[in-house]
Amino acid sequence: MAIGLALVLFVSGAIEGFVTPSGLPTWARITIGVVAELAFFAYVYVLGGRAARAGDTGDVEAAERSATVPTAA
Predict the structure, then answer these.
(1) What is the mean pLDDT of the segment spanning 57-70?
(2) Report field, pTM of the whole predicted structure over 0.90
(3) What is the pLDDT of residue 6?
(4) Which of 14, 28, 35, 50 has its CA 20 to 30 A from that of 62?
(5) Does the record's keyword annotation contain Transmembrane helix (predicted)?
(6) Residue 42: inside a domain, yes or no?
(7) How many other CB atoms sit within 10 Å of the CB of residue 39?
(8) Helix, strand, coil percentages in the chain from 3-state DSSP, rounded to 5
(9) Does any domain span residue 63?
């Protein structure tokens, strides 16, 4: 999960650093943004769906959780 997050942050940083201030026409910058957004959605739904079908929920197993202390409500 951390590698995926690093990849997304790298791509967004590259777009903000190089595409946003560039002299490209507005339609080209918008196209790059739309393509990046569609790629992100494909990444989330394709890989996320694959993980969900494999049974990965992202929950921490009970044996790996730290001890909890009851608190007043």
Answers:
(1) 79
(2) no
(3) 92
(4) 50
(5) yes
(6) yes
(7) 12
(8) 65, 0, 35
(9) no
